[in-house]
């Protein structure tokens, strides 16, 4: 608990912004409804990383509403999901009462012994919710708790993605023939557009572009999150520093391998990294 307090005390400004968004009832609603694979890239990454002997011990980080819990439970002999947002943990426990979920921070996995898991997952760019120092701490902690030959699957934003410069707005008005629902959705849409515009004005000055380490405003949740964005080459360097086998496998959203340079069309990419075997 002392380590958790110190982490929150040293919190980067981006985390204060992101945590507030994750606790928002609208965000919780979105995560509660989320299901299935995000894309073919995620499906391929999970399949590659799944324990080769069948069912294994799996740590699922940043579980949100439990979308990945449903995907991983069939290949897990022992499943644990964690999230640093208490509201998300409560949501997961409600959605999957038969699985284990804990309120923990991925930068401090001291509750788990060395070589505790065959597979660790941090989906939907969750690792990008903390700053550069926090990211490196996560990579080292994950490497520690993985068994030899175990796999870490995560996705990460590409800093060269054009959407960061063009400020892509993710808010869409969902059509329904029900007039009451349509009215409510229209109000929510207008509210989101207004709040998103105000957040852009307030948060854009907080962006950082220091060499490979970039913290940028993203359009999700009406521009309610700031994310760490990087490059394929920098990811490989970070994996090597954390002790993973090189090179890590990088996949685009269609599940196709990418090299050291990714197109500006790639919003993010998936990573499969293995701990060196015996």
Automatic annotation (TrEMBL):
<protein>
    <recommendedName>
        <fullName>Methyltransferase domain-containing protein</fullName>
    </recommendedName>
</protein>
<dbReference type="Pfam" id="PF13649">
    <property type="entry name" value="Methyltransf_25"/>
</dbReference>
<dbReference type="InterPro" id="IPR050508">
    <property type="entry name" value="Methyltransf_Superfamily"/>
</dbReference>
<feature type="domain" description="Methyltransferase">
    <location>
        <begin position="58"/>
        <end position="150"/>
    </location>
</feature>
<dbReference type="InterPro" id="IPR029063">
    <property type="entry name" value="SAM-dependent_MTases_sf"/>
</dbReference>
<dbReference type="InterPro" id="IPR041698">
    <property type="entry name" value="Methyltransf_25"/>
</dbReference>
């Amino acid at each position: 608990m002392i380590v958790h307090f110190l982490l929150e005390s040293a919190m980067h400004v981006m985390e204060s912004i992101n945590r507030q968004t994750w606790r928002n009832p609208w965000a919780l609603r979105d995560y509660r409804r989320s299901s299935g694979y995000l894309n073919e890239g995620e499906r391929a990454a999970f399949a590659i990383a799944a324990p080769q002997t069948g069912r294994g011990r799996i740590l699922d980080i940043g579980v949100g509403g439990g979308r990945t819990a449903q995907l991983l439970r069939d290949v897990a002999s022992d499943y644990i999901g964690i999230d640093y947002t208490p509201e998300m943990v409560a949501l997961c426990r409600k959605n999957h009462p038969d699985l284990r979920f804990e309120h923990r921070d991925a930068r401090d996995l001291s509750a788990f012994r060395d070589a505790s898991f065959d597979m660790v997952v941090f989906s939907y760019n969750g690792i990008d919710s903390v700053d550069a120092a926090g990211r490196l701490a996560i990579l080292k902690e994950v490497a520690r708790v993985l068994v030899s030959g175990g796999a870490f699957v995560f996705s990460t934003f590409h800093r060269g993605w054009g959407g960061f410069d063009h400020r892509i707005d993710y808010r869409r008005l969902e059509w329904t023939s029900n007039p009451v629902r349509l009215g409510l959705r229209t109000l929510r849409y207008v509210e989101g557009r207004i709040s998103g515009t105000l957040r852009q004005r307030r948060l854009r000055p907080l962006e950082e572009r220091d060499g490979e380490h970039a913290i940028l405003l993203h359009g999700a949740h009406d521009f309610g999150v700031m994310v760490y964005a990087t490059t394929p080459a920098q990811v490989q360097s970070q994996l090597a520093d954390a002790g993973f086998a090189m090179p890590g496998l990088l996949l685009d959203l269609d599940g196709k391998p990418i090299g050291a340079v990714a197109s500006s069309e790639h919003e993010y990419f998936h990573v499969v990294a293995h701990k060196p075997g015996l």
